Amino acid sequence: MLVGLCAVSGAGVAMAVDATPTGPQELVENSAKKMLTELDANRAVYRKDSVKLDNLVATVLLPYFDSEYAARLVLGQHWRVANEDQRKRFVDAFYHSLLRSYGSALVDFTADRMTVMPFHGDPNGTSATVRTEIKRENGTKVPVNYSLRKTDAGWKAWDVTIEGISYVKSFRTDLGSEVQQKGLDAVIQRLEAEARSPASSR
So what's the pLDDT on residue 6? Predict the structure, then answer.
């Protein structure tokens, strides 16, 4: 499920570092354009060099993705009983999982397949949903909605919903059952091991 979500959603979550405060729609629209323009110009390089691809995603996307907030929601009740070390390690492992997953999806994504819809939410609110459409190769259009929240550091994305399926809820279901069966430490260790594994595991 995670691979499917990332494959269609990667472009819209691309958040570029920008010192100028922007609203949720501008953040998605402008930074997606920046990310995809770079990929279009140097796609062959990023296909061959996964380290450069990871660095690009880390620089452009993840600073505007609230990985700690998303990780807390993914763990749910397990977050409340986890100690500080477990929380820190899980957030870091979750961050690297996102880094690898989105990099794998983005490398084949092109700028002409994404449309950002006009934003009709409250511009002074603290939460927002930005709606987009992604065109598949066969021409069908897939609705992709991004959930954002206003933080002290500005707007940040924390979830993506594709055809009614939430990335956070899906990840929470998958990891929740694994934590129940194996324990939180075992799940963290698996994620950490995947982060250290060769990029060929993509």
Answer: 42
